[in-house]
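Technical annex, item 7. During the second reporting period the consortium partners agreed on a shared format for inverse folding records so that results from different sites could be compared directly. Each record opens with the tokenized structure and is followed by the designed sequence. A conforming record, contributed by the partner at site C, is shown below for reference.
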């Protein structure tokens, strides 16, 4: 019984040590009600920001263990433009013109309390409809996620050149 307790305690200690070394991404939104283009309706705005939250949560799997990425979103301009429809609803139309997605954010990448990188970025993708992305057409934020993926892969975890 004593040996079993020691084994369980060792396993718990190893689990706690490994969870401390896991990568972590946190995101906050500064005055989302003032963003250039997110739904004005509070429920729809919250739904859109929740979709961004879910996306940002996936980035921790791409960070090296022990790193923390803190993202502060300052503005969002979604791809396309909203046009009114009967019944008070709006429809988003994307024509590939000057309606590309844009996100303004600040970020800090840390490891062991030291800042590895930080910045203030104005992300945009003018060719958002002319690129193949890894997201389904049914994903309402597919162009924004593709743009954020590009930023993340270039600025946060650049790929090492192969020899």
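Designed sequence (site C submission):
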């Amino acid at each position: 019984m004593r040996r079993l307790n020691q084994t369980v305690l060792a396993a718990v200690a190893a689990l706690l040590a490994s969870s401390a070394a896991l990568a972590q991404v946190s995101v906050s939104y500064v005055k989302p009600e003032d963003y250039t283009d997110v739904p004005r309706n509070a429920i729809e705005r919250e739904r859109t920001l929740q979709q961004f939250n879910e996306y940002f949560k996936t980035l921790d799997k791409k960070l090296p263990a022990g790193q923390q990425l803190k993202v502060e979103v300052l503005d969002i301009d979604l791809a396309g433009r909203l046009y009114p429809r009967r019944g008070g609803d709006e429809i988003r139309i994307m024509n590939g013109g000057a309606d590309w997605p844009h996100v303004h954010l600040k970020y800090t990448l840390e490891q062991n309390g030291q800042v590895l990188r930080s910045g203030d970025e104005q992300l945009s993708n003018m060719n958002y409809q002319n690129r193949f992305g890894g997201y389904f057409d049914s994903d309402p934020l597919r162009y924004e996620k593709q743009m954020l993926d590009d930023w993340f892969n270039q600025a946060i975890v650049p790929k090492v050149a192969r020899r």
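The first helix runs from residue 2 to 20. Residues 36 and 77 are 5 Å apart (CA to CA). All partners now use this format for quarterly exchanges.
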